[in-house]
Amino acid sequence: MLKRLRNKSSGILTAADxxxxxFRVLYWIIIFILFVAVLTAITPILWLFISSxxxxxxxxxxxxxxxxxxFDLGKLVEVWNMLDFGKYFLNTIIVVVGAVICSVFxxxxxAYTFAIVKPKxxxxxYGLVLGSYMIPAVTSIVPLYTQIxxxxxxxxxxxxxxxxxxxxxxxxxxxxxxxxxxxxLFEAAEMDRCGKFKAxxxxxxxxxRPIIGVVAIFTMTAAWSDFLLPYLVLNDDSMMxxxxxxxxxxxxxxxxxxxxxxxxxxxxxxxxLPQIVIFAIFQRQITGSSAAGAVKE
Length: 297
Hints:
Order of helices and strands: HHHHHHHHHHHHHHHHH
Strand content: under 5%
Mean pLDDT: 82
CATH superfamily of the largest domain: MetI-like
Largest sheet: none
CATH class of the largest domain: Mainly Alpha
CATH architecture of the largest domain: Orthogonal Bundle
């Protein structure tokens, strides 16, 4: 790290600044604040993971013990089989896959229209998309739910898929990336008599894998953790997602024989593991999403 600081020539603080005592003090203060922030963020997750392996007596023991007497992985299998949790995971995967497809296809296609095709009046529609940022998502729940009922889509995954197919944030990410693509490619496609719609799949999509990957990851994590709309739409127990099932278990905990607070903590641990794994695998794509549109011609 010190070697990198000595060779640092860009940013708010350069290598020359680090030679001054006050800037070094400021640097280590920032590092300390970031360390405290990271510790604050991961402490609840670590506590949940450790506590999920305790039994009901250990959770309320006096004096309190941070670690369980034993880390028995068999408890994970026991809870999984007790609740038949595999079907709820499968339901959530169905929702996630459909949401990713709709998010990438619809947002990407509309962003392509705004960034490359630019038909007459496109700025008006783009302004409406930007204006949607000012509307809290919660305020749209009532009209959205009313339309879902009118179309007879209760106990259907389709509205959960389409919800991610119209996202202003993803659309803007796509648009900024598409505008950075070399214009010569589209000119060559036009000379080869490649239509606008065909150019999207043959030219844009192959060159946009980085931004497609970022949007897919964001959509995946958002769809996995989504609760409110699935709770309103999915009333059938056999179709519930993981988050909705966990909420129902929490409210009806006493009705399931042998299911107590310790089992609930284990279910919560199981539910967050996929998102942790996804972030660990695709960390570079997620943290580098701000630079996704930095391609130059």
